[in-house]
Amino acid sequence: MDKNTWVGFLLIAAIIVGFTMLNRPSKEQLAERQRVQDSINLARMTQLEAQRISDSIQMTLEAAEESIAVEREETKPEEEWVTLENAHLRLTLSSYGGVIQRAELPEYHASGDTINPLCLFRANEASFGFTLITINNRILQTSNLYFTPVESKEPNKAILRLPTSDENAWLDFVYELSDSYMVHLSLVPHNMQNVLAQNMNSLELQWRQLIPQQEQGRKFEERYAQLQYMLSGGEMEKLSESKDDDAKESARVRWIGYKDQFFSTVLIADDAFSSSQFSSRVQNRYSGYIKEYATHTSVPFDITGKTITGMRWYMGPNHYHTLKAYDDGVAKEDRLYLNKLVPLGWKIVSWINTALVIPMFDLFTSWGLHIGIVILLMTLVIKLIILPFVFVSYKSSAKMRVLKPQIDEINAKYPADKMQERQAATMQLYQQAGVSPMSGCLPMLFQFPVLMAMFWFLPTAIELRGKSLWWAEDLSTYDAVFHWGFNIPLLGDHLSLFCLLMTICNIGYTYITMQSQATDPNMKFMKYMMYAMPLMFLFIFNDYAAGLSYYYLLSLFITILQTMIFRWSLDDEKMLKEMEENKKKRAGKPKTGFMARLEQMQREQQRMARENAKANMRR
Fold first, then answer.
1. Do the beta carbons of residue 217 and residue 477 sit within 8 Å?
2. For residue 104, which of 123, 121, 87 has the smallest C-alpha distance?
3. Taking a C-beta distance cutoff of 8 angstroms, is the pair 374, 364 a contact?
4. Rounded to the nearest 5°, which phi and psi values hold at 330?
5. At how many degrees (to 10) do helices 419-433 and 404-413 cross?
6. Is the pLDDT of residue 333 over 60?
7. What average pLDDT does this structure show over 422-431?
8. In 23-109, which residue ranges form alpha helices assigned H by DSSP?
């Protein structure tokens, strides 16, 4: 490096040293900086200490809460149970929630269980409670509170008392079990105006219940499991039995029924329920339950206790006479009509059931006969009642069969393109021979309501439940003789023997009927359809009650015997001779009645057809 370079470096170093000397802090500045740094360090230490103290306090609080929780657990009242029982119903009441925790029917058993009484619901399958609002606006649910059992001197009466912070104020749940399937609940407040909100004039009620599967045939049981309720005016409303359903009801509700195929739990208001919401949920087939029902409604409530809030539960079988008995001696406007829980069919079918079928069933069962004999006697009586109609129908079919050769001549004379002329000639033949095509159809219309009455009655008759007949252990459900472990569409996983025998008998009856009727060779498809119908019944009735299939089997067998007797008693040649004489007597006489109106209609149709044809030709 040369001289100039060294001089440059020295000047730069002098500048840096000089600048550093000039900007060096004074003693006062150094002291201030040290003071600020000490303050920062102190603040950091204080913050760390505060965090440590906070953590310590939090740990102490958590420990205290755990200690309080343990203490509460140790001091929590023990759950107590009270039992109310008569010959028909056994109830277990719990002090936790003050509710019925278990309801059993000693006279019945679930399917497959011959030891334990049938249980409508258990503790984990139902919940029931009211919403209370305290004077300081706290909201409490009675289902989460502990009651204290109070000794009662009256038999079949239990008092569960809800204590309050005021030792002079409490709410009593008073249960009274009658000598049947009915239990009454009264809500009796004592000085509760000092505890509850003054504007409480009603109580919200929540009721939920799972319906356990009680019968062998789940699919059939689901058809009858349904939430039903009756309005104060007497109208019955229902939720869907086949799918999830909800309903809101602004009208006053008299009672709410959680219904199974043969048993129900019904909540009945002494006054009425209002602002009600209902829900029904179908349960998984492997859950052991059929449906889950829920209700949210309200009932009137007087916190002073001057007016007692009351309601009743019916917990028992869907037995027509048992349910109807609750209306005996009761004014019409106060009747419950619980018997409507038993499905008896449409109006005319229901009338036949109540006027004929049920009284007849009661009469025969009162004789102490086996249920199989009872159904046989009912079948015979019904067959005797409809015998005149069946005979008229068969005789009409026989006359038309005898006239078949003459009808074939008419068909040959008038080709298919002259259908109106063919029909007119056929109707004229019937009228002259004294044969009415409607005489074979009308008798069947009279038989149909009776057949439908039995169709509705037998599957819902609880008297058939558990009754055996030959291989069928329970006539209220299917009598499976074959199980194949997998589901076949429409048929299921089994084959019922009574249903199979009914199908075979029905095919035999169809064959006999087809042999005795005049059939058109060109209508072979209809012939095959006649045989297909009995096979369809095999799929339809395979899941139905064995008692119903047994009835139809008897009915078909008796019908076959009747047909054979009719065939033996009626002479085709004699009938033909009588019809030929009728033709001679009526020849030249004006037609009257249905045949005359029918012929007039045909002539009018022919006239209109000719006019339309002329109009088309002009165009």
1. yes
2. 121
3. yes
4. -105, 140
5. 150
6. yes
7. 70
8. 27-75
| Residues ≥6 apart with Cβ < 8 Å to 323 | 314, 338, 339, 341, 342
- At 482, the pLDDT band (50, 70, 90 cuts) reads confident
Alpha-carbon span 282 to 290, nearest angstrom: 6
pLDDT band at 510 (very low <50, low <70, confident <90, very high): confident
CB contact at 8 A, 423 and 605 = no
Please give the Cα distance from 479 to 495 (Å, whole number): 8
**DSSP code for 61:** H
CB proximity list for 122: less than 8 A, separation 6 or greater: 101, 102
Nearest C-alpha neighbor of 460 from the set 353, 315, 325: 353
**Neighbour-count burial of 513, counting CB atoms closer than 10 A to its CB (0-12 exposed, 13-18 middle, 19+ buried):** middle
Q: What is the pTM of this model?
A: 0.75
Token pair 């065939």 is at which residue? 567
Res. 294: pLDDT tops 80: yes
DSSP letters for 526-577 = HHHHHHHHHHHHHHHHTTS-HHHHHHHHHHHHHHHHHHHHHHHH--HHHHHH
State the amino acid at position 284 in one-letter form.
N
CA distances from 609 to 81, 250, 597 (A): 85, 58, 18
Give the tokens for residue 181. 């399937």
pLDDT at 397: 72
Structure confidence by residue, pLDDT tens digits, 208-227: 999 999 988 788 888 899 99
CB 105 within 8 A of CB 118: yes
> What's the pLDDT at 220?
82
Tokens of 411: 């068909």
User: Residue 472: CB partners within 8 Å, gap ≥ 6?
Assistant: 479, 497, 498, 546, 550
The whole-number pLDDT of residue 111 equals 84
Cβ atoms 292, 209 nearer than 8 A: yes
The residue type found at 474 is: D
Question: 419-433 and 572-586 helices cross at what angle (nearest 10)?
Answer: 100
Beta pairing class for 148-150 and 139-141: unpaired
The model's confidence at residue 32, banded by pLDDT at 50, 70 and 90, is low
362 confidence band (pLDDT: 50, 70, 90): very high
- The mean of the pLDDT values for the chain is 80
Q: Which helix (H) or strand (E) holds 268?
A: strand 263-282
Any residues with CB less than 8 A from the CB of 226 and at least 6 apart, and which? 238, 239, 240, 241, 259, 280, 291
**Cα–Cα dist 30/553, whole Å:** 117
**Residue 295 structure tokens:** 């209700």
